[in-house]
Amino acid sequence: MVSIRYRKAGNAVRNVSWTKARGAGLTLLLGILLSSFLLFVTVPIASLFLRITPEAFFRSLAEPVVVDALVLSLLTATVSTVIVILFGTPLSYINARTEYRGKDIVDTLTDLPIVLPPAVAGIALLMAFGRRGVVGEYLDAFGIQIAFTTLAVILAQVFVASPFYIRQARASFEAVDRIYEDAARTLGASRLRVLLRVTVPIAWTGLVSGAILTFARALGEFGATIMFAGNFQGRTQTMPLAIYTTMQGDIYDAISLSIVLVIISFAVILAVTFVTRRRI
């Protein structure tokens, strides 16, 4: 009887030891994976800051090509975001609150630019709005040219960035409990008034989060812009295009613009995190 008890106690000790060893091994593996991933992400970003001095960074920011690209990018990304919000908010609300034939097709087409290669988006826009495009040839008859202009930059940004807002806005509207909207309607409020005074305020944090992501995507757009708008300094050369161009000349200008985009991207992530936490 005593020997049986000792054997059971020994087995229990071995099981506990094996469990601890397995847990320690799993913790070590997770630590290695996390460390490897963090190094893979942070080393390239840190290298940007290590390869340029503060003096060279601020000197590059004063270069005309950098200033023009920075101003144009901020301007076009802001205009694009406003356009997406104005047109995307009603569309998102309709898709969130209305069932109609072909809704799945509309949702698919809305999300298509997310998976569409940027170069394909650019050539598609060119075939539609270029001087010999499906729509562009009629506009050209009235002296209206879109391709290779600042307007082309904005259209390219709207095309590739709009799904980020529309998807987020649709999810935010779907998360609003309809009981609040129904209560407002029983008090005599119109559908538009309910949208502006009830639904939008409740979904506000999600809408802001989507707008921030849209701005960031528009700011970083490259492929569709260079195909549809070209790469002309002061007119269509945004920061990503300027990085591509200056790499062939002054690498410090490219690094400076890259650092600016990294800072903006980091600020965007912080802003989205802050807005999301406030909603929670």
From TrEMBL:
Superkingdom per UniProt:
Archaea
Tell me what topology the record assigns in the membrane: Multi-pass membrane protein
The answer, when asked if Transport is one of the entry's keywords, is: yes
Keyword line: Membrane, Molybdenum, Sulfate transport, Transmembrane, Transmembrane helix, Transport
List all membrane-crossing ranges. 24-50, 70-91, 112-130, 142-166, 194-216, 254-275
Please name the InterPro entries in this protein's record: MetI-like, MetI-like_sf, ModB_ABC, NifC_ABC_porter, Sulph_transpt2
Recorded hits in SUPFAM superfamilies, A to Z, give: MetI-like
Occurrences of domain ABC transmembrane type-1 (ranges): 70-272
Example of a GO MF term? molybdate ion transmembrane transporter activity
Entry annotated with the keyword Transmembrane: yes
Q: Where in the cell is it found?
A: Cell membrane; Membrane
Q: Name one GO cellular component term.
A: plasma membrane
Q: Which family does it belong to?
A: Belongs to the binding-protein-dependent transport system permease family.
UniProt protein name: Molybdenum ABC transporter permease
Q: Which organism is it from?
A: Methanoculleus taiwanensis
The top of its lineage is:
Archaea, Methanobacteriati, Methanobacteriota, Stenosarchaea group, Methanomicrobia
